[in-house]
Amino acid sequence: MKQIPQDRDQEIFDGTAYYYLKYRGQYSDRLIRVLAEACNLDGRGRLLDLGCGTGKLTFPLVNYFEEGIGIDISSDMLQLAESQCELLRKTKLKWIRMSSEEIGPELGTFRLITSGDAFHWMDREKVLNLCFDRLVPGGAIALVGQGHILGNHSLKWQKAVQKVIDKWCGTSSIEGKTPDIPHEVLMERSPFQSIKTGTIKSVRHRDIQSIIGYLYSTSTCNKWRLGTNAPLFERDLHDALKAVDPSGIYEEPVTDYYIIGFKEK
Predict the structure, then answer these.
(1) What are 145-203's pLDDT values in tens digits?
(2) What is the per-residue pLDDT across 63-122, written as a single tens digit (0 to 9) for each?
(3) Measured between alpha carbons, how far is residue 101 from residues 64, 89, 122, 189, 238 in Å?
(4) pLDDT of residue 197
(5) What domains are defined for the chain?
(6) CA gap 130, 209 in Å, rounded
(7) What does residue 172 show for φ and ψ, rounded to 5 degrees?
């Protein structure tokens, strides 16, 4: 893993990498196929994944390229991504610790640049322009995501979890930074053309430990921030969820979304 010096005093996802890898949901196979078909991926060219985390989007997509690079500001995330390369025998992936606002000519050019559930943390207009410069003619940028586990709080168990979060984390949201302008609007204002958007719906089931693990993977409700209150937080979550459904199994609606913009040939 290559490291580029950072200006930030503290990484917002410190201590979350293990939980991110284990409890964040995988992107659907259907989403990966949609990206491959829409961008005419055929094994050629290079992939750049911005805010790659532990590689949940990087790993399934790199199979469509000659080489892939994942960048992130979190060394913890990148170390786990790198260790997975050995387990999965992925030899054409590189990991670099840097922010997306720093990408430049030294990285070379790419056929596809992606960002999975991370674009809202970035200086989006700046990054879109930087990405446009790094793409080959005919290349594309794909912004994808799943939203967060509590969705629109329409289910009883989601409302119960939010009440516990409000008590212990002092926040009304676990999404982190919420964009004031939708990604697709900024994409339309950017140099990218032929913009494609869509959603893919599915359902997953979570147990109580999975819900707690997911919350510990977030920037605003993680175990490091809770400190010595973590056991009390877990107890309250367990009791609140059991009160909703004693089975301990909860249905989570999932919506994968994608926003793809192209650099004309």
Answers:
(1) 998 899 889 999 999 999 999 999 876 555 555 678 999 999 999 999 999 999 999 99
(2) 999 999 999 999 999 999 999 988 888 889 999 999 999 999 999 999 999 999 999 999
(3) 25, 30, 7, 18, 40
(4) 98
(5) 2-149+177-203+254-262 (3.40.50.150)
(6) 40
(7) -100, 5
> CB burial class (10 A; 0-12, 13-18, 19+) of residue 182?
exposed
> 127 with 119: CB under 8 angstroms?
yes
SS3 165: helix
Q: Which residue has the tokens 């979190």?
A: 74
154 burial type by CB count under 10 A (0-12 exposed, 13-18 middle, 19+ buried): exposed
d(CA 102, CA 127): 9
Distance CA 144, CA 162 (A): 25
Please write the tens of the pLDDT for every residue from 131-142. 999 999 999 999
Which residues pair with residue 197 across a beta bridge? Answer: 259
- In this structure, are residues 218 and 176 in contact, taking their beta carbons and an 8 Å threshold? yes
